[in-house]
Structure formats: C-alpha cells, structure tokens
C-alpha cells in the first residue's frame, strides 16, 4: 500500500510512512486505554502511597504503559514504562495469567520451560500453578519479592468487554509495607480500581 514507507531524500534511508501513522492511530483508539486509565492509576498511587502501574498483555509478556509514584519516600524501581516481563513473573503478569482459560495457561507453560532457569525455582510449573490458584481465589496476585528481594508487588487484572484479561493494575513497594492487614487493604483498593477501569473499558 502506498504511503507505508517514506524515503529520506537527504540520506536515502527508508522510514515509516504516513499511512503507518494513520493505521497506528486507528489501532490506538481500539487497544490503547492509557487515556482512560491514567487518572485511575494516579488515584491508586494517592490512595495507597505506593507506586502504581498499568500494564498491557502483548503475547506472552506484559508491558508497563503508565507509572505513577506514590508519596511514600522508599520506592521500588523494578517496573517503569516500557519494561517487559513474561506472564506469571511480575504481579501484573500473574494476575493476567491466572484469569486466562486453563488451556491457554497450559499452552503458555509448555511454551516457556525456561521460566524457572531464568527467574528462579519459584517459577517452576508446579509452584507457578499454585500461585495462579491462589490468585484466582484471592482475586489479585501477590509477588513476595520474587524478582528483587524485598520488593513486593500486587496486581489485579483488567478485562475487556468480552471478559479477556488484557491489562492489569499493580502496586510495588518495600516488603514491610505489604504485610498482614495492610496487604489485604491494598488488595481491596486495587480490585476496586481494576473494576472501575474494566467498567470504563466496557463502556467505550
């Protein structure tokens, strides 16, 4: 199609063309929810005082789209815009993986036998399946310092109109801020914000 690429007269290099920009704009209107999610992510950071994030599923990974820092002075910097993790590793990806159909979970684990070698024994299939079951029962995922020791995360899936877990909201912070009753309260706040965002997505 004409306009997909454009040539720079000065250098002779081929560059993305104007039609790609238009195609991307159309796709963004369908798939990019950052404009309707940003105030929810900010509210999550304000309510909890922790760093809050929006991530999106891209194939077998999650990609962080939005980060909002909370007011608590000690922060975790495991996650920021553009950072990718395999599903099931960070709390956002575990939240998404837990709510995929069981056959999709099986297929994912079959495709990625390297998870335990790369991310540690806690990501072996049996242990990951246990965390998936815990996430479904609880409603949100907990990452107890499995990526960086002392840096905890919680994540909740955000669903499309048809019920697919396509995005996730998450919080990260230092371990002593994520224990006991406070962890349960963070989970409740997170689930409420994720439900609010899922409702917005369904109304688009």
Characteristics:
single chain; about 200 residues; alpha+beta; Beta-Lactamase; 6-stranded antiparallel sheet; two-stranded antiparallel sheet
Could you give a quick summary of the protein structure above?
The chain is an alpha+beta fold and 204 residues long. The chain is built from seven helices and eight strands.
Written description of the protein model:
By secondary structure, the chain is an alpha+beta fold. It folds into two domains: 1-31, no CATH class; 32-203, GAF domain (Beta-Lactamase, 2-Layer Sandwich), CATH 3.30.450. The protein has helices spanning 18-31, 34-48, 91-98, 102-111, 115-119, 125-138, 180-203; strands spanning 5-7, 14-16, 51-58, 61-68, 84-86, 141-144, 151-159, 165-174. The strands form two sheets. Strands 5-4-3-8-7-6 form a six-stranded antiparallel beta sheet, sandwiched between helices. It has a two-stranded antiparallel sheet with strand order 1-2. Helix 2 (34-48) runs antiparallel to helix 7 and helix 3 crosses helix 6. The two termini are 30 Å apart.
Number of helices: 7
Helices and strands: which structural class? alpha+beta
Share of helix, binned:
40-55%
What is the gyration radius calculated from CA atoms? Answer: 18 Å
Ends apart, CA distance between termini: 30 Å
Shape-level CATH architecture of the largest domain: 2-Layer Sandwich
Mean pLDDT: 87
Biggest β-sheet: strands ordered side by side in the sheet: 5-4-3-8-7-6
